[in-house]
Structures are given as C-alpha cells and as structure tokens.
Amino acid sequence: MKQLMNTSLKKATEKERAAVLRLEMDYELATLFEAIEDKNEKKIKECKQKLEKIRLELLRLKAF
Q1: In a structure prediction context, what are the per-residue pLDDT tens digits for the chain, which is 64 residues long?
Q2: Helix segments in 2-64, DSSP class H
Q3: How far is Cα 6 from Cα 13, in angstroms, rounded to an integer?
Q4: Which of 31, 28, 26, 20 is nearest to 58 (CA)?
Q5: What is the distance between the alpha carbons of residues 8 and 15, in angstroms, rounded to a whole number?
Q6: Do residues 55 and 29 touch, judged by C-beta distance below 8 A?
Q7: Close Cβ partners of 28 (under 8 Å, ≥ 6 residues apart)
Q8: Diameter of the chain by CA atoms?
Q9: Residue from 51, 62, 50, 56 nearest 15 by CA
Q10: What is the pTM of this model?
Q11: Which domain of life is it from (predicted)?
C-alpha cells in the first residue's frame, strides 16, 4: 500500500514539475523573441541555453 501511495505522489510531483517547466518555457520563448527583435546576441544565446535545459528536463519527465 505504501509503495502505491509513493508512486502516486511521485507521478503527481512530476506532473506539477512538468507544468512549471512549460510555464518557464513560455517565458523563455517570449524573452528569446524580444532578444531577437532587439538583435541582442548575448541574450539570444542565454535564452537558447535555458530552453535546452528545460527541453532536456521535460524529456526526462516524459512530458512530451
């Protein structure tokens, strides 16, 4: 019974984390868009790196 509850809790936690990551991804995409419009190469690079980290974590959570 304990194992079943732990599994359910883990899945719920992963679901919440995936939702947070999607919000972070939306924010970073908006920031990237602004950086592209401003032609800010440094900010573009930073946003792409953050987006890559978010993508990898989402893949680990099997959220896609």
Answers
A1: 666 667 777 788 888 999 999 999 999 999 999 999 999 999 999 999 999 999 999 999 885 4
A2: 2-38, 41-61
A3: 10
A4: 20
A5: 11
A6: no
A7: 47, 50, 51, 54
A8: 56
A9: 62
A10: 0.80
A11: Bacteria
